[in-house]
Write a structure and sequence with these properties.
By secondary structure, this protein is mainly α. α4 runs antiparallel to α5 (about 110-120) and α8 (about 150-170) runs antiparallel to α9. It has helices spanning about 10-30, 40-55, 60-70, 70-100, 110-120, 125-130, 135-150, 150-170, 170-200.
C-alpha cells in the first residue's frame, strides 16, 4: 500500500494529471469571462496540455499565462474574425429558416457546407498557434492542410462537439449537469482529448512544413 502513495506511482501521477486539468480549466474559464479574451485562453490551454502530452511537465500556471501574454494579440484578432464569420453564417441560416419562404429553404445547404468547412478549419487554429511559430497566412494554410489532410479526425472532432451540444440542450437537467462538468474540468478534458490526436497529426509534418516553437525559450 505504501508504494501507491510514492511520488512516482501511477496513482499519484494520475492525481497530478487530474489536478493539472482542474487548474487549466479554472484558468481557462476565468480568462474567458470577458469573452473577447477566449481565443487567447484556448491557445494557452492547448499550450499547457500539448506540452504535458509531450512529457515536458510544464509549470501549469506559468506556461498558461506566458502563452496568454505572448499570443494575446494574434489569438484575439483570430477570435474576433471567427466570431464575426460565425455570426454572419448563423444570421444567414436564421433568415433562411424564419424569414424567407419555404421555396428558399434549399439555401441552407450551401450555407451549412460553408459553415462546416469554416468550423472544421477553426478546430486547428489554436493548437497550431500554441505549437508553431508562423505568420497568420501560413497559419491559415496549415489549418486547411491539416483539416482536409486528416478528414476522419476532423469529422470525429466535430461529431464529439455536436454530441456534447445535443446532450446539453436535451433537457434543463442535462444543461445544468453539462455546464457543471465543464466549469469544473470539462473544457480542459476536451482539449486534452483532442490534443492526444493533434500530437500524432503534427508529427506527420516535417519541420520544413511547420516551424516548431518553444515559447519557454523565448523572452517575449
Amino acid at each position: 500500500m505504501k508504494s501507491i502513495f510514492e511520488s512516482n506511482s501511477p496513482f499519484i501521477r494520475f492525481l497530478n494529471f487530474l489536478a493539472d486539468l482542474i487548474v487549466v480549466n479554472i484558468l481557462f474559464v476565468i480568462t474567458s469571462i470577458p469573452v473577447i479574451t477566449a481565443g487567447a485562453a484556448v491557445c494557452s490551454a492547448y499550450s499547457v496540455l500539448l506540452k504535458r502530452i509531450r512529457r515536458e511537465d510544464p509549470p501549469v500556471v506559468k506556461t498558461f499565462f506566458k502563452t496568454f501574454k505572448s499570443e494575446f494579440k494574434r489569438s484575439t484578432l483570430i477570435w474576433l474574425v471567427l466570431m464575426i464569420i460565425t455570426v454572419f453564417l448563423s444570421a444567414d441560416l436564421y433568415i433562411i429558416y424564419f424569414i424567407l419562404g419555404e421555396e428558399y429553404r434549399w439555401l441552407q445547404f450551401p450555407v451549412l457546407i460553408v459553415l462546416y468547412i469554416f468550423l472544421s478549419i477553426a478546430l486547428y487554429i489554436y493548437p497550431l498557434l500554441a505549437t508553431y511559430e508562423t505568420g497568420v497566412k501560413a497559419l491559415l494554410k496549415n489549418c486547411v492542410l491539416i483539416s482536409f489532410g486528416n478528414l476522419p479526425t476532423t469529422i470525429f472532432f466535430t461529431f464529439i462537439i455536436l454530441l456534447i451540444m445535443k446532450v446539453a440542450v436535451s433537457s434543463n437537467k442535462a444543461m445544468i449537469a453539462t455546464g457543471s462538468i465543464f466549469l469544473f474540468m470539462g473544457f480542459a478534458a476536451l482539449f486534452y482529448f483532442f490534443s492526444v490526436f493533434l500530437i500524432r497529426i503534427f508529427q506527420k509534418y516535417t519541420s520544413e512544413e511547420l516551424i516548431q516553437k518553444d515559447i519557454d525559450d523565448k523572452d517575449r
